[in-house]
Write the structure tokens for this entry.
Amino acid sequence: MATKGNSGELKTRSFVYIFILIGLCGSFYILGAWQRSGFGKGDKIASAITRQTDCSVLFNLNYETHHGGDAVTVDASDSAPKEFQPCDDKYIDYTPCQDQMRAMTFPRENMIYRERHCPPEEEKLHCLIPAPKGYATPFPWPKSRDYVPYANAPYKSLTIEKAVQNWIQYEGNVFRFPGGGTQFPQGADTYINQLASVIPMDDGMVRTVLDTGCGVASLGAYLFKKNVITMSFAPRDSHEAQVQFALERGVPAVIGVLGTIKLPFPSRAFDMAHCSRCLIPWGANDGMYMMEVDRVLKPGGYWVLSGPPINWRNNYQAWQRPREELEEEQRKIEEIAKLLCWEKKHEMGEIAIWRKRTNYDFCRQQDAKPTLCESRNPDDVWYKKMEACATPYPETTGPDEVAGGDWKQFPQMLNDVPFRIYSGSVPGVSVETYQEDVWLWAKHVKAYKSVNNIIDSGRYRNIMDMNAGLGSFAAALESPKLWVMNVMPTIAEKDTLGVIYERGLIGIYHDWCEAFSTYPRTYDFIHANSLFSLYKNKCKAEDILLEMDRILRPEGTVIIRDQVEVIIKVKKIVGGMRWNTRMVDHDDGPLVSEKILFAVKKYWVAGENNATSLE
């Protein structure tokens, strides 16, 4: 919809109405998704269409007639669903497991207070987190990399604290991100090219990166140019909203810290780990933090450390730190790296790069060896204490064999059979099972696109798969326009997160009985396959749905795939959550008991009590 200005040129109205056409039994129905630009009032015609479209009706499911005596009755009673009220405006940026007030009650030693501390049952909120007034749909990628609407994260402190470091600038009604950082004020591109002179980033060999203490994630933002995907993390601390800014920019990030608990990633996950002035005391606690990086690095992976204490001789005065302190800090780092059998590949200026050996053969020759971890499962990490021990390499049969399998280029690795599969490391998952899963999800995603025809248009940048399995949903969606956070539930029967990383994708362990480590409104599209069946006797569906609502952007999309009786229950709950929904049959037809619920979260902001906010 457009209006002509005085000059005759077309001007887009402040609301763009996107029609998602749903084909059911030869007819098409409209599921509304509003995209708010942040300026002006809603379009009256589109508003009328929304009012005329009853998104609560189930069209032609006829589940009972296809299943004989075992029919499941759709709850078509007049009983209204429980209506969830908006939370107080003070909860606009609420992060339940990283709440600032709760954090201050925990010890500061080893950053314990910045770790996850979730509220007990009696303190959980049972309301809808509001968006701030003026909230606007983020700009499409790649513009979002450089610009974020001010109203979405109205915090100017970083523009002052980091003014000389080129992190972020405030310009009118947007924040601009020039691509600088504490360690790369000349821009991330220049810095990345320095790294690429040592690390093979240009040929698809390096695909997954871990950025510790990421700031506003400019490294991850610019690594996308090289088709490299970065998992960035930083604590919720005095650098207000840094992870929130990262996600608003369309860059993968979570709230997290290297403290006392293992990182929520599998072993051998990343091709490269990076720290640029991340303030992590790498030499402390007997090298425990470097040993945790070693656990998550692939054999042959790289560790980059830039900033203090590297090149301390030339910088100790500028850093305003004693020479002796910096010298000892670097000595410890070098000592631990040697103990871990890392090879130092490069040191120039304030950048040092080490490489983990491709297998353990070379390390056997060392006199000094680290204590090896006793745990038989290096991927068992959820709320497990970090240890000052080295994770053993997978076994090899010769000095030239790469432990954990040869490195492959992306995108070849996306659908090739991963090492963990063909080596039999995942019980119950064969090569045939894997290949069938790849085919099946390509089919499912094609069916999704026939219902929501804007899935791969660029409208959805930040996507989450809440029960990711082998990562085939994300693989079927793979595109430079989007990325997927593949979540491996800690109660899943099979832990396949390592497989997901071997496909060149990223993900994280999480228990959906707790809040996810992110800010509100950070995902455009959430997918949940059999999640509610998985958690049926573990925690309330209502709590999981409220968490989904918290992390979903206004006008964001949800697809829930589950058994029909579960879908009906879920649909009734979200009927009180300001979501428009549509339930459809399985792509193989109405005889299949699995159904799909499509939903769109309505636009509403703090201070508004109406459900649609279309004034």
